[in-house]
Specification:
The chain has helices at 3-21, 30-33, 117-130, 167-186, 254-265, 287-291, 297-314, 339-346, 391-394, 473-488; strands at 52-60, 84-85, 90-97, 104-110, 136-143, 189-199, 204-206, 216-224, 230-236, 249-250, 269-275, 282-284, 319-321, 325-335, 354-356, 363-374, 379-383, 387-388, 422-426, 435-436, 454-455, 461-462. By secondary structure, the protein is α+β, with helices and mostly antiparallel strands.
Length: 489
Amino acid sequence: MNTDRIISNAIGKLSELIISCMPRSYFTDEKKANKYMLTGDEKFTDKKGEYFTCGFGKAVLTPDDAAEGKYFIAGYDSNNPATGVLDDMYARAVYLDDNTGSGGVIMCAVDAVGISRKDINKIRKKVIKSGRIPNLKSINICATHSHSAIDTQGLWGEKIYKSGRDDDFMEHLHDLTAQAIIDAYENRADGRLFYAVRKTEDLQFDCRTPDTYDSNLTKIRFESFDGKKQICMVNFASHAELLGSETKKVSADFPAYMIKEIEAQNENCDAVFYNGAIGGMISAKEIKKVYRNEIDCEEYTMQFGKQLGEMVNSMQEETELVPIINIKSVPVSIKASNYVLILARLLKVLNNDISRNRKLREAYIYTEIGYLELGNADIGMFLIPGELFPELFTGEFLTEENSANGTKAEYKILKDQGNAKHKFVAGLCNDELGYIIPENDFFLNERLPYINAGNDRFDRNHYEETNSTGPKTAATLLDAMDDLISSVK
């Protein structure tokens, strides 16, 4: 056995020892972890209401002292205190009801790199306990994945072993996001819902083979009967990382400027952005210049967001949706093969709800997946708790010959699940598990797996594996989604 294998095996044994020795207080039972997850519809139906009811609420999350070096910027290097504010972090929430009596749905987006399900459930608890939204069947909260927002996960603190989360800020985020959700309900109006889709060209870049991504820009637009309210929901796949690693300014990155453009050009309009399948990594066209600091990153961030907003505004050929909303969510347990994540949980850097098996050797993360249909199966939205590699949606995998492990990817891809006319991924939804990677191209550094990135037989770098829960995550989530959709049809 070579030295690298000995070291790797020793780390694996150490990981098992750590898990077995962790106090019970670090683990959550399944009932408690799922207590505030509203599961939605038991079965999907074609029953339609007379009209849609929709509302919008928002809250500025940026604290008054954001520029004083108190908070860490998340998404680039650790120990990067914010010393300025370029634009505000927001929570933006949409309430949607088809008036069939089955209940309303919340789709919220928070300008953050990612939010753990434990934090999501704290927000859900506040909304539910308030009693201000009757007959609510689903609460979903996505992160926009801004790499310049305040650390909401804990991974970007001063030291690797010290959380970058500020407890007061997180409580502030919980309170204001819950209020934005309640406001969305209270600001509701009756009206019609439309959708439009267009292919984008020359806007995205895939930083890792295979070169594949969802190039669709999807708009779902509500218009009240009295013409006094518009709500625009946008889905697009791109890392919000255009300000570059040198930035010290809090920002929502390009989504802020996309939303500003949409709202500026549409009277009485509120907009919200839900990111897509961005694993791989899917980013903006000029991202390599951003990485090398070869361009004015602030100007590029604004220009890219404005360009997307202009594209959304140009989408005039819309299809009206009949008032039908079907949604279902189910809990999922993910095996945490990445021992670094478990160590981070032990050190209270991360705060995910976790469990361990009966032999006390393996840890699992409690998470969830969901599926939303709008209209007569016109729209199918996969609610995915992390950064999904787009080939798990498109099916354009590396072949056996070209994959890191020389094996074939065998999954029922998301595009083949359900019968909706137009399908897309809402990523980082209700959790952030990191990168969700096809197993045939999941490659680890032999000496220090999950710590150092590995280079495969083609000398391709596999950085993303260091920020994933493990090689079985993709199969677990896609199988769960297939089971979910089969159960409601």
